[in-house]
Write the structure tokens for this entry.
Amino acid sequence: MSQEPTLHRAVMVPEVIDALKPRPGGRYLDATLGGGTHSEELLKRSAPNGQVLSLDVDPAALTRARERQKAYGQRWRIAEANFRNLKGEAENSGWVPFDGILFDLGLSSDELADPSKGLSFQIDGPLDMRLGPKANEDGLTAETIVNRWSEKELIELIRTFGEEKFAVRIAKAIIERRRQKKFESTLDLADTIQASVPKTSRIHPATRTFQALRMAVNDELASLKQALMDADSILAPGGTVAVISFHSLEDRIVKQTFKKYKNYQISKKPLSPNEAEVKNNPRARSAKLRAAHKNSTKNNYVTDVRHSYD
Ligand SMILES: C[S@@+](CC[C@H](N)C(=O)[O-])C[C@H]1O[C@@H](n2cnc3c(N)ncnc32)[C@H](O)[C@@H]1O
């Protein structure tokens, strides 16, 4: 199956490179392959013998990358996997420990534009919102949430994950509407939300509710917490974990989990994209990059042995 080229524009590429400092012979794990720009940049900068393992839950992202994989031979491995299982995937690769691990969170522009995923409130599609078959363990979809969850559960979800001040109104409108007819499509839901709230904001009134649903369906915060906890155990001394997050709930988890790491240098403030990038790629405007650098230990057995084989 051939795939259209990616629509996704990777954010903060120079900053990520500066944080991970890829070098020949290094090993890198890109937990969120997406359009593949960060992975390929790591491959180029770690040439001729650096290795990159890229994960994604979205089969379309993998197919797209596989078309370019040949150019890098055995140096680039691509796996359909949830980063929740990052440790197992890393161990299966036989490449532990890694010198750099990258997370670029959220969804890609390709996923947003894919009607079958049902992620956009501007394109009609099924109320699914799973980023891929491995996105969650229980098969939960947005359709189940909006048609079955109680008012209380909906309010809690929209308020917590969406940080939506009209959570009560939106939840009540969802309950009211589904009494008459089940929700089946994204536009159907977006119209109900739009009609339930005052037109006060510059963003589409369904933005925050759609974000909340996507986060719940893909169990995003729990997966991130798990992956960040495990990242420490597969990272080489001297290595770096870098995370790009797009909203405050994610950023809080990154900050709190980094604090639990022992023997690391943690950047106090996150980096933001520069003005020129935000101008050229509005999606970058809410990006925040945090990095945790593991201290080197002298005579570290694992790294010494590995590099003597490179
Ligand atoms: C913002 S995009 C990454 C873009 C990428 N850095 C690039 O250079 O194009 C985020 C990607 O992470 C993937 N993703 C989200 N949650 C995931 C998870 N739990 N496990 C693996 N991949 C995930 C999405 O499917 C999406 O392709």
User: Anything to note?
Assistant: Residues 246 and 282 are 12 Å apart (CA to CA). The chain has two domains: 13-110+221-309, 137-217. The radius of gyration is 20 Å. The beta strands are 27-30, 51-56, 76-80, 98-104, 235-245, 264-266, 288-294.
